[in-house]
Backbone:
């Protein structure tokens, strides 16, 4: 009797052990360190990307390939030294296996050496300077690049009666990328540049620069400013009467960012931009995305920073399915390279050599639709590469 009882106990222990201990090992949580500017002048970038990461997990569950996903959010407040310190602490103290986020280029640059030293995959969800992935072999980008979003508007302008352009960009790496690409492509298409200015990033005052643009009498003013700055540019464009002087506003879509577009009012109407994402993109996937995002975040329209965060999480989930839950740097990179997925903006592919995003870019016009301002797409340039080639 006693012998039979202890056999039963032993059997039960075996069965319980088989169910608990083996999966418990496989189901070590997988921690992702998400570093974003949640405060400071670029807080809207952090808010958008973080909301998208949360929405992706809410819709797809927090377990992938047997591993529970835990996101550790850190606010770098747009200070590169803080980004770097958080990247180090997250890896060393919190044992994160993936780094993600990176709201602006200098923040991505700061974290890159940390990812390289630790061989940790680093998913760039927001920054757009073309050379970001060159800063670490463990970087993969799901956002966009400035050459990618600039070349199409330069071609469009040259082909649509715009002969003379004045350029105005934010004075840091993505601005230089936008300016260089616009100048090269527009001139190659036969256009003329009548002036170029770079506006300092610290407390920018656009007034004197917009006035110089007006005085140069171009057919159009090309603008790149980072997400969040567009409203201040639009205010000067309106106050200084550039539209009345016959000067058209063109740019990458950053200047008519969906996050703040509706607050810009009538002066934004008629702006022509090229960009990979519009909240007005008429696909079924995007309609569902915008609806779910607005429901989860009342009063906030998802913008391109949101899409970079969503696409980044989707990439992480799909890669982990391929690697059976391993985030080992080399395995992760090998699985991600060449991967094609469908995001709110449409199909995108990770260029296996550049580790950068290939996606369609649209030409859009800002219009009032049902009482709200939207960037309405009217032309599509398929599969634009990170270097702006297509
Ligand atoms: C970057 C930041 C932005 O907000 C943007 O719209 C484009 C580029 C950047 O710093 O890379």
Residues:
């Amino acid at each position: 009797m006693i012998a039979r009882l202890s056999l039963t106990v032993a059997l039960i222990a075996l069965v319980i052990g088989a169910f608990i201990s083996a999966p418990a090992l496989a189901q070590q949580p997988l921690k992702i360190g998400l570093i974003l500017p949640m405060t400071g002048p670029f807080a809207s970038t952090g808010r958008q990307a973080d909301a998208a990461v949360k929405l992706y997990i809410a819709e797809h569950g927090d377990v992938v390939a047997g591993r529970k996903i835990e996101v550790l959010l850190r606010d770098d407040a747009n200070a590169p030294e803080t980004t770097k310190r958080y990247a180090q602490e997250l890896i060393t103290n919190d044992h994160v296996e993936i780094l993600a986020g990176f709201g602006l280029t200098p923040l991505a640059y700061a974290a890159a050496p940390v990812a390289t030293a630790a061989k940790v995959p680093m998913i760039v969800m927001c920054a757009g300077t073309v050379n970001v992935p060159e800063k670490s072999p463990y970087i993969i980008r799901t956002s966009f690049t400035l050459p990618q979003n600039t070349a199409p508007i330069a071609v469009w302008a040259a082909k649509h009666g715009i002969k003379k352009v004045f350029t105005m960009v934010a004075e840091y790496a993505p601005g230089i990328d936008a300016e260089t690409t616009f100048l090269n492509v527009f001139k190659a298409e036969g256009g003329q540049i009548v002036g170029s200015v770079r506006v300092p990033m610290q407390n920018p005052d656009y007034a004197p620069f917009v006035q110089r643009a007006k005085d140069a009498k171009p057919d159009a003013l090309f603008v790149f400013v980072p997400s969040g700055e567009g409203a201040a540019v639009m205010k000067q464009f309106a106050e200084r009467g550039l539209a009345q002087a016959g000067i058209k506003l063109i740019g990458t879509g950053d200047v008519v960012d969906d996050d703040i577009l509706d607050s810009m009012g009538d002066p934004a109407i008629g702006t022509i931009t090229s960009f990979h994402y519009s909240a007005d993109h008429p696909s079924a996937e995007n309609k569902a995305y915008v609806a779910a995002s607005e429901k989860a975040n009342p009063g906030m329209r998802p913008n391109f920073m949101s899409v970079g965060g969503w696409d980044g999480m989707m990439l992480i989930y799909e890669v982990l399915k391929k690697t059976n839950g391993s985030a080992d740097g080399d395995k992760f990179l090998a699985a991600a390279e060449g991967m094609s997925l469908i995001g709110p903006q449409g199909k995108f592919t990770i260029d296996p050599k550049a580790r950068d995003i290939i996606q369609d870019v649209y030409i859009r016009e800002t219009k009032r639709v049902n009482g709200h301002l939207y960037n309405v797409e009217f032309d599509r340039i398929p599969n634009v590469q990170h270097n702006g080639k297509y």
Remarks:
- The longest strand covers residues 356-369.
- The chain has twelve helices and 15 strands.
